[in-house]
Each structure stands twice: as structure tokens, then as C-alpha cells.
Amino acid sequence: MDVIGAIRTRRSIRVFKPDPIPKKVLQDLLDVSRWAPSGGNVQPWHFDVLAGELLAKVTARLVEKAKTWDGHDYMDTKPDLPRTGPYSKLLMPRRQSLKALQDAIRYPPGTKNLEAKQLEHREHMLRFFDAPSAIIVCSDDRGPTSIVSIGAVTQTICLAALTYGLGTCIMGIPVLWPEIFRELLNIPKDRAIVTSIAIGYPDLRAPINTFPRPREPLDNLIEW
Question: Among 189, 212, 210, which residue's Cα sits nearest to residue 142?
């Protein structure tokens, strides 16, 4: 697959097969991904790779948060990097469009016990969608240039993963509770926990992995 094919093919995967990813595959993936660009070539990134019992311990702690978190209120969370405010009037319709597509799959008309189903979804999300592995992406610098660099390496991981037949989902929700990762992974306080990636072999039979993804027309995004 060429680069353009990977860019157009990549999508967020939310249902994975249970098959574990060989450690060598993850090593090779991160080896190539470290060639991503970074401001000043400082390469601020650091990765914690979770699988097996360690992943289970982390997700068990995260799932406990789902019982008291409604999926919208972030006031009781203390992420290393503050979340942005509400989406602007320009961006909110795009967010609402995606949510409507996803909710139609998760909660079709006639769904009973909606609150229970919503809790199941939050728990599923905090288990990294039951992916066999997760990558916690950290930064040794919290400046804006380094955070842009973290975005570059995260996208590079997701594109390169396609070469290995892997699917990914970049996830900001799990790292709303950095204290869990610090306790279980011994991440130092001066290292920012920026984002996470669920990674595994995608189940392409799942409707949530195949719905059409809207994109804003190019003419709305570019000036000449």
C-alpha cells in the first residue's frame, strides 16, 4: 500500500479481533514510526506498550471510572494536558454528524435499556475497544511545538500499522486519568501523558468499522 492509499484507507477501528499482536510486529512498527518529523528534531515522544495482564490491569481501573463518568462532563478529570473548550460553531456540526452516525449503529430505534447500553459503550471505550494492545503516547516536553510533534508520530503509527494489517484508534478519553497510568506503568511526573492508541487486527464485519466517513469539501478548507 502506498502512502496515499494508506491515508485514504486509515480509519478509526472500534471493534478488534482477539488475536494478539506479536511483539516483533509492534517493535518494527514503532521502529519505523520514530522517523516521524519533530520540531528541532527533539523527538519528544515516549511509548508505553500494553498487552496481556498489564493491559487488563489498566483497563480494569479505567472501567471503574465509567460508572461515575457520564461521557460528557470532564470536570472531575485532571489530564496532563487540558482539554480544549466546547467545539466552535464551525466545528460542532461535524462532531454532531459523526455522533449521529455512530449512535444509529450503537443504539438503533427501539433500543431498550438505553442507559445500560450507554454504560456498556463507555466501558468498551475505556477497555480500548477490547484491542489486544494499546500504545500510550507521552511527551518529555509540554510545549506546543512538541505536542504538534506528538500528533505527527501518532499519525505515523496509525498509517504504518496498515502495512502490518493492523487497525488503530487514537483515543484521548483513557488519558483523562493519567494517575492510573503513572501508578501502574511508573511513568514519571515530568513526562506528559498525551494520548493513546488502541491497536489490533480489525474486525471488518462490524458496522461501526465500516460506516461512511464524511469529509468537508476541499473548497471549504483551502484558499488560493
Answer: 189
Arch. (CATH architecture) of 3-83+116-210: 3-Layer(aba) Sandwich (3.40)
Asked if 136 and 196 count as a contact pair (C-beta separation under 8 A), the reply is: yes
> Tens of pLDDT along 70-114?
666 666 789 999 877 778 888 998 888 988 999 999 999 999 999
Tell me the average pLDDT of the chain: 94
> Roughly how many angstroms between the first and final C-alpha of the chain, as a whole number?
31
Alpha helices in the chain (DSSP H): 3-9, 23-33, 52-66, 92-106, 114-126, 144-161, 178-185
Nearest CA to 157 among 135, 141, 178, 175? 135
129 HSE (CA, 13 A, CB side): 25
- Other CB atoms within 10 A of residue 190 CB: 8
Sketch the domain layout of the chain as residue ranges: 3-83+116-210
Residues in CB range of 43: below 8 A, 6 or more apart: 34, 149
Report the share of the chain in percent with pLDDT over 90: 82
